[in-house]
Amino acid sequence: MFFKPNASSPAPIYLQLMEQVRHAVEVGALKPGDQLPGIRHLAETLVINPNTVAKAYRELEHEGIIDVLHGSGAFVRSTNPGRRVQAAVPLVTGLVEKLKSRGLSDQEIRRLFESALMRQVEPARIR
Amino acid sequence: MTELLIETHSLTKTYGGVEAVRSLNLEVPEGSICGFLGKNGSGKSTTIKMLLGMTWPSAGNGMVLGQSIRDARASVEVRRRIGFVSEDKRLYHYMTVEQMIRFTSSFFPKWRVDLEQQLLRQFQLPVKRKTGHLSKGMRTKLALLLALCREAELLILDEPTEGLDPVATEEILQLLTKMAAGGTSIFFSSHQIAEVEQIADRVAIINDGSLIVQESLDHLKERYRRIQLLFDRDVPQKWLKIPGIEASHADGRAMSVLASSNIDEIVRIAASLEPVSIEVTGVNLKEIFLECVRES
């Protein structure tokens, strides 16, 4: 279910794990009620620190994406923000099509999105 | 507050007038995997030898599992509760692998025979061979087996992957994460930044005997940013002295800044210089390490 995180990336591993879960929920690979692997098991499989997995699960719970039930594991919450993201897909697709019809390349569009985001969000922290 | 399993206060070691370790205040909390990084000769092994009671401190003190490292009797007792691999992977060269294992296990009532058997198979150690005739990688593996099977509360490992190929290294890292998941705390030194980045949740960086970084790896990565600026004219000189900037390099119309804090302010000031592009990116441990040991 999980991909091995890139330890040498500037992004902390717990953030990479969170991103994987968010993405899986958004695209429907993880459905409401699905159980996530146990902390120990996942740490051993991915060969990462168990505290890192625990931190990712804690933060995901804080974001309302999963529920951590002590003793029985972590589950995808039934009402999660995945739908909100799903709903925005046509908007983004439409905009990308429009930009392409003006002759912009994928690279240029990606850079435009990134720099627009950079200007809006305070850049210091990822959270 | 988590308990500290290793704690040193102004720990210092002088060899012939040279300070190999200077006034070290190291902290390793219970439940963590702490990676200990530094260049060759930076004081890593000397620190570890002092923690293990193999070298006497010149000044300062340290506690391991609540016992002073200056108390010779307590130090012997502590060594029974920790698993360690020292720099020289010390083994009795005249014993065979099998004899070495039996000899060591006799000191530890909680010796895990199941893990011993599993590791012997996994590491493919030649049980009948004298330890003096083992390759460097084999010696490291045997030293690790001896450290891991005693069911220790704390592992202190000096370069536990030294001389191992990438496959064996990954096996060792997997073992260490498994031990950590079972509640063992780990303090290990390494030259391999990538392996520290993979399994450690805390990092300590020592340079010329002084501790220059000691914090959670996540915090470290969240704190540091590289800010890259492009100008349509030569880089303005005036804003270089802002707190938080660790290093900056200007080259014609491009400028790259590494900052450890105060990022918002630095970006704000940078933007006021009207560059044509600002890019803020994260930094990995290797870059942080290289910058730290270069600057100090």
Characterization of this structure:
The complex is a heterodimer of chains A (127) and B (296). Chain A has 127 residues and is mainly alpha-helical. Chain A folds into 2 domains: 13-76, Winged helix-like DNA-binding domain superfamily/Winged helix DNA-binding domain (Arc Repressor Mutant, subunit A), CATH 1.10.10; 82-120. Helix content of chain A is 56%, strand content 8%. A 3-stranded antiparallel β-sheet of chain A has the order 1-3-2, covered by helices on one side. In chain A, a hairpin with a 3-residue loop joins β2 (66-69) and β3. In chain A, α1 packs across α3 (50-62), α1 (13-27) packs across α4 and α2 (39-46) packs across α3. The longest helix of chain A has 20 residues, at 82-101. Chain A is globular and about 55 Å long. The two termini of chain A are 24 Å apart. The relative contact order of chain A is 0.12. Chain B is α/β, with parallel strands linked by helices. Chain B folds into 2 domains: 4-215, P-loop containing nucleotide triphosphate hydrolases (Rossmann fold), CATH 3.40.50.300; 224-295, Alpha-Beta Plaits (2-Layer Sandwich), CATH 3.30.70. In chain B, 34% of the residues lie in helices and 29% in strands. Chain B is built from 10 helices and 15 strands. Chain B has helices at residues 44-51, 72-81, 97-105, 113-123, 136-148, 166-181, 193-199, 217-223, 263-272, 285-295; strands at 4-15, 18-24, 27-29, 33-37, 59-64, 67-68, 82-85, 154-158, 185-190, 202-207, 210-216, 225-230, 245-251, 254-259, 277-281. In chain B, the strands form 3 sheets. Chain B has a 6-stranded mixed β-sheet, with helices on both faces. In chain B, strands 1, 2, 3, 5 and 6 form a 5-stranded antiparallel β-sheet that branches. In chain B, strands 13-14-12-15 form a 4-stranded antiparallel β-sheet, with helices on both faces. The longest helix of chain B is centred in the middle third of the chain and has 16 residues, at 166-181. Chain B is elongated, with a radius of gyration of 22 Å. The two termini of chain B are 31 Å apart. The mean pLDDT of chain B is 91. Classes of the chains: A mainly alpha (127), B alpha/beta (296).
